[in-house]
Amino acid sequence: MTAPAESSRAAAVGRSLRWRARSRLRAGGFGSETGLLVLLGLLAVLGAVLIVFADRYAPVTLLLVPLLVASLLLGPRILPWFVVFVLTLTVVAVVGRRLRDIVIMPAAVTGIGMVFLLGLVVLLTSFRRSRLGVAGFQGESMFVDLRDRILNQGGIPALPVDWHVQSALASAGGTLFAGDFVVASRPAPDRLEVVVVDVSGKGEQAGTRALLLSGAFSGMLGALAPDQFLPAANDYLLRLDWEEGFATAIHLSVDLVNGAFELRTAGHPPAVWRAAGSGRWSVIGSEGPILGLIPGAEFDVATGVLAHGDAVLLYTDGMVEQPRRDIDLGIDRLVGEAESLLRGNFVDAAQRLVDALGSRNDDRAMIVVNRL
């Protein structure tokens, strides 16, 4: 057997073992929800026994521990029953103390109240989580995975050595979810497609809409011709019929061989182009309505050729808009900052511009396309 064949067989065996391990974990054992329920139930019973027979060292509030852990790990289907179980154990423990002629001090009464209060909070939380159907940690891991998928959609594909593309995102208030996102694709060896989108709303409020649109736009971007992408995105948003179902976008399609590009915008701030020959920055004008508002919308195209040393900046309005300031002044500031920061050095260009410009109360996104 050849070395590659042995390597493939070993990889297949490894995948099989991992699949079996995950299956067993889901089927039972302490890694499953049933196993956790049993473990937490035993912990609660042990706590109740200590409260009755070791009253000097085990306050009634000891039962808060399994209650709190359960609120994090158990799903909404089982959690309410576990809360009732713990509250019943609390009553049993208190009655057991009385049967042993142990005086219940005011501190113990306060502890009993805390256990019942936390139990009520956990119950209300479980009813709210029932809409999602997962436990606390599972829900958090799902949201982290969703956030990572948004970021991965904006991953820049491998490019020829004479092209360099950077992206940077920052959300309002520093949250991990944003309404701005980037989608990039290389549908053919000689073509790069990049889209920067600003979804209505900001921060976590727009994060779920951004997630859905990033997946849809990623699929469209790799499958449609450049002139068809924005019309298809517009139709998609219209079909969703959201109350806040609009977005702005800017789409750049570049020929990686000769540098020819097509640029289209949908209610989005214009791109900025640096011509290496003259060293001047200019605004690339193109017109188009906001996505999701007008059926059958048409989008104008601006064309040009990126020479060696040229760069194009694509960004969202959070980079150039400030309260009580005209957006044109914001674009002028962006051009001035770019000329100062990126003079002869495009290393970490997108991140440096995001850090230097825009409102911290708005989502910001930046793409820098540079032909070396």
| Assembly level | single chain
Number of domains: 2
State the end-to-end CA separation.
47 Å
Which value, in Å, is the CA radius of gyration? 29 Å
Calculate the mean pLDDT score and round it.
Answer: 80
The helix-strand sequence is: HHHHHHEEEHHEEEEEEHHE
Query: What is the number of helices?
Result: 10
Determine the structural class based on helices, strands and strand pairing: alpha+beta
Largest β sheet strand count, sense and barrel closure: 5 strands, antiparallel
Let me know the CATH homologous superfamily of the largest domain.
Answer: PPM-type phosphatase domain
Helix content: 40-55%
What is the highest CATH level, the class of the largest domain?
A: Alpha Beta
Spell out the blueprint of helices and strands.
Elements: H1 3-27, H2 33-53, H3 64-73, H4 79-99, H5 106-129, H6 136-153, E1 163-170, E2 180-188, E3 191-199, H7 203-223, H8 226-240, E4 247-255, E5 260-266, E6 271-275, E7 280-284, E8 302-305, E9 311-315, H9 327-341, H10 349-356, E10 364-371
Antiparallel strand pairs: 1-10, 2-3, 3-4, 4-5, 5-8, 6-7, 6-9, 9-10
Helix pairs in contact: 2-3, 2-4, 3-4, 3-5, 4-5, 6-7, 7-8, 9-10
